[in-house]
Amino acid sequence: MRLSQMLFVTLREDPAEAEIPSHKLLLRAGYMRRIGSGVYAYLPLLWRVLQKISQIVREEMNAAGAQECLLNQLQPSELWKESGRWETYTQAEGIMFALTDRQGRELGLGPTHEEVITAVARDMIRSYRQLPLNLYQIQTKFRDEIRPRFGLMRGREFIMKDAYSFDVDEAGMKRSYGKMHDAYHNILRRCGLAFRAVDADSGAIGGSGSQEFMVLAEAGEDEVLYTEDGQYAANVEKAVSRPAEAVPSSFKTYEKRETPNTPTIASLAKFLDCSPTQILKNVLYQVTYNSGMELLVLVSIRGDQDVNEVKLQNELTKLAGDYKATAVIGLKVPDAEAQQQWATQPLPLGYIAPDLPDSYIQPSKTLVAQFLRLVDQTAVELKNFVTGSNESGFHVVGANWGSQYPLPRLALDLRKASVGDRALHDPSQLLQSARGIEIGHIFQLGNKYSKALNATYTNEQGEEVPLMMGCYGVGVSRLAQAAVEQSYDKDGIIWPVAIAPYQVIVVAPNAADQDQMAAAEQIYNALNQAGVEALLDDREERAGVKFKDAELVGIPYRIVTGRSLQQGKVEVVTRATKASQEIQLDQVVATIRQWIDAELAQ
RNA sequence: CGGGAUGUAGCGCAGUAGGUAGCGUGCCUGCUUUGGGAGCAGGAUGUCGCAGGUUCGAUUCCUGUCAUCCCGACCA
């Protein structure tokens, strides 16, 4: 492609709309333009990148035995009502663009395709003989993100590869999952990215096992905890660890003490001159279920630990049936205003005890009249602990479960793992922290959707059994930007060769110089013939402009037909390292071809 | 949805005690220059987000509204 003929517009300054480096660079280098909030036009350069990523994804999916298809984006509400997700996806989480057509039919714009693919499977898969099966598509998804952010990182319209596997049983599902796990490693390796596969929370999709593929970058929205030995890595939402040992309590007898102005753990520990690990912290949460019921939850946890709200929400979801509900649609620490809605008297904030009386709750039709009392594992083992007294200004010391307080019936893992914790598999390994961009997520769904939509097959014994499913996503457009986030310098983007829009850019520094232009043309043609994807900067610009643009756009190799032409040589510069060398005119194409092949083989 | 901010030329920004707007960059033309976003000369470009109101007159003041961005709860 000749730059003189291409839609090629670079910006000299950072656009005001962009915050993180990759977003700024993609806009500045002319890869994309914002059309609306969270909605971008993919311009020719970016489209090439996206197609390259798609092609790598396609090759690896095909190699893993998956079959490509293309599913509908307009999805009838009936399917989503069957799976029970219509309500949660259009209201509670509100992530689906929903619309009504002129006949009054309700439709959703596909945020994901479990329902559609399961409907297809229900219609077409009859026998175990047709299994296993894995279907995938690469397509635009629509999600009404509450807050679109960071360009392609969190758009409302984005390209995703989603795959769905169908197996006869759990073992088969795990095999399919394993294949996808390997395929994802291959995809990311081939795209030239530094990444880590981590244990993940399966969130709204549901299911059992799940892993995320994180591209490591400072701007990542997720925190990853891992061990040096490579044995453990998890999203902080999911991570487990051994907390630090509790310091044995220095309080021997139970008594109430005056502790003025100690509403926080830190202030209390200082006042009593004890370790936060001796304190029992009681945190109040307010939960809203999709049945309309509100529930107040009191979580007791060791003072030095924090509650992991994702874990808490998962546990509360398991209990949804007790409240005639199927999902949690809200979880918050009630603020003063929320407390006023239900508290019969001011709460002893900062001084709450695990036995905070239910009489604090104003009876109401939509509010459960008792606190749900949960205790984290770390707090179960505490002896002679310090905790609130339900009276402002006073705590108790030397308290014990069973003596002063009944141990809550539900003892769960609700704590947030953090950097420096000891790993479960090997206490000598300490958790390290890194930030990551989630570009892939694989799930073992089990039969959640197949049961809901009645997608069954007949097994060898002639029985009708629900299909065992898995689902697997890769954010294709997000991956493109993540690659930039991971690889850039002060001059611009540094694309890995495998996904660069073009592999080489040929620059004639002086467009007025006939020899330079002729040499550039000749090399450009030879590169094309050799199957190298090349750009020719034949614009009537000065050398500086051309070099700056080439670096900003991030083409891996630059060939300059400049001064060295006198000696029959051209200069070849590697974008990533800025390393430059002079190569004979007649050898440059073969050399470049070799370099590219070596890069692509990695 | 809660909190904070911003809408003026393609992009980045200034400005108007109320009198229809400017800087940088980019764009167009010409000459010079030609290995790191050149120099000189000339030129084009705006419903001042939108709608009401006040006023002789509103981009400026008032009211409303829409959009966008940032910080929090959701996700490839």
TrEMBL record:
<dbReference type="GO" id="GO:0005524">
    <property type="term" value="F:ATP binding"/>
</dbReference>
<feature type="domain" description="Aminoacyl-transfer RNA synthetases class-II family profile">
    <location>
        <begin position="33"/>
        <end position="496"/>
    </location>
</feature>
<dbReference type="InterPro" id="IPR004154">
    <property type="entry name" value="Anticodon-bd"/>
</dbReference>
<comment type="function">
    <text>Catalyzes the attachment of proline to tRNA(Pro) in a two-step reaction: proline is first activated by ATP to form Pro-AMP and then transferred to the acceptor end of tRNA(Pro). As ProRS can inadvertently accommodate and process non-cognate amino acids such as alanine and cysteine, to avoid such errors it has two additional distinct editing activities against alanine. One activity is designated as 'pretransfer' editing and involves the tRNA(Pro)-independent hydrolysis of activated Ala-AMP.</text>
</comment>
<comment type="subunit">
    <text>Homodimer.</text>
</comment>
<keyword id="KW-0067">ATP-binding</keyword>
<dbReference type="InterPro" id="IPR006195">
    <property type="entry name" value="aa-tRNA-synth_II"/>
</dbReference>
<dbReference type="Pfam" id="PF04073">
    <property type="entry name" value="tRNA_edit"/>
</dbReference>
<dbReference type="Pfam" id="PF00587">
    <property type="entry name" value="tRNA-synt_2b"/>
</dbReference>
<comment type="similarity">
    <text>Belongs to the class-II aminoacyl-tRNA synthetase family. ProS type 1 subfamily.</text>
</comment>
<dbReference type="InterPro" id="IPR045864">
    <property type="entry name" value="aa-tRNA-synth_II/BPL/LPL"/>
</dbReference>
<dbReference type="InterPro" id="IPR044140">
    <property type="entry name" value="ProRS_anticodon_short"/>
</dbReference>
<protein>
    <recommendedName>
        <fullName>Proline--tRNA ligase</fullName>
        <ecNumber>6.1.1.15</ecNumber>
    </recommendedName>
</protein>
<keyword id="KW-0436">Ligase</keyword>
<keyword id="KW-0547">Nucleotide-binding</keyword>
<dbReference type="InterPro" id="IPR033730">
    <property type="entry name" value="ProRS_core_prok"/>
</dbReference>
<dbReference type="InterPro" id="IPR002316">
    <property type="entry name" value="Pro-tRNA-ligase_IIa"/>
</dbReference>
<keyword id="KW-0648">Protein biosynthesis</keyword>
<dbReference type="GO" id="GO:0004827">
    <property type="term" value="F:proline-tRNA ligase activity"/>
</dbReference>
<dbReference type="InterPro" id="IPR036754">
    <property type="entry name" value="YbaK/aa-tRNA-synt-asso_dom_sf"/>
</dbReference>
<dbReference type="InterPro" id="IPR007214">
    <property type="entry name" value="YbaK/aa-tRNA-synth-assoc-dom"/>
</dbReference>
<dbReference type="InterPro" id="IPR002314">
    <property type="entry name" value="aa-tRNA-synt_IIb"/>
</dbReference>
<dbReference type="GO" id="GO:0002161">
    <property type="term" value="F:aminoacyl-tRNA deacylase activity"/>
</dbReference>
<dbReference type="GO" id="GO:0006433">
    <property type="term" value="P:prolyl-tRNA aminoacylation"/>
</dbReference>
<keyword id="KW-0963">Cytoplasm</keyword>
<dbReference type="GO" id="GO:0005829">
    <property type="term" value="C:cytosol"/>
</dbReference>
<keyword id="KW-0030">Aminoacyl-tRNA synthetase</keyword>
<dbReference type="InterPro" id="IPR023717">
    <property type="entry name" value="Pro-tRNA-Synthase_IIa_type1"/>
</dbReference>
<dbReference type="Pfam" id="PF03129">
    <property type="entry name" value="HGTP_anticodon"/>
</dbReference>
<dbReference type="InterPro" id="IPR050062">
    <property type="entry name" value="Pro-tRNA_synthetase"/>
</dbReference>
<dbReference type="InterPro" id="IPR036621">
    <property type="entry name" value="Anticodon-bd_dom_sf"/>
</dbReference>
<dbReference type="InterPro" id="IPR004500">
    <property type="entry name" value="Pro-tRNA-synth_IIa_bac-type"/>
</dbReference>
